[in-house]
């Protein structure tokens, strides 16, 4: 299976976070605080020009494409 990131995700389809591909601990902590970590379901609500809107648990968040690229699904 190819590596797929949130940037490649189909809108409104639920995925499971497989891995957070970053060495930036601050970034990992930030994502964890949103409820975005391995094994958690995540849905891309919409793709924007430089970011995407994701739904995690009961919240919606706008994350930039660099961050979306680090979240493997």
Supply Rg.
11 Å
What does the largest sheet look like? 4 strands, antiparallel
The CATH homologous superfamily is called Ferrous iron transport protein A (FeoA)
Low-confidence segments, given as residue ranges, are none
Proportion of β residues? 35-45%
Order of helices and strands: EEHEEEHE
> How many structural domains are formed by the residues?
1
Q: What secondary-structure arrangement, pairings included, does this model have?
A:
Elements: E1 14-16, E2 19-20, H1 25-34, E3 41-47, E4 51-56, E5 59-64, H2 65-70, E6 71-72
Antiparallel strand pairs: 1-3, 2-6, 3-4, 4-5
How would you explain this protein's 3D organization?
- With 73 residues, this protein is of the alpha+beta class.
- It has one domain: Roll (SH3 type barrels), CATH 2.30.30.
- The chain is 22% helix and 36% strand.
- The protein contains two helices and six strands, in the order ββαβββαβ.
- It has helices at residues 25-34, 65-70, and strands at residues 14-16, 19-20, 41-47, 51-56, 59-64, 71-72.
- Strands 1-3-4-5 form a four-stranded antiparallel sheet.
- The protein is globular and about 25 Å long.
- The model has no long low-confidence stretch (mean pLDDT 94).
Tags for this entry?
Transcriptional_repressor_C, transition metal ion binding, 4-stranded antiparallel sheet, 2 helices, SH3 type barrels, two-stranded antiparallel sheet, Ferrous iron transporter FeoA-like domain-containing protein, about 70 residues, single chain, alpha+beta
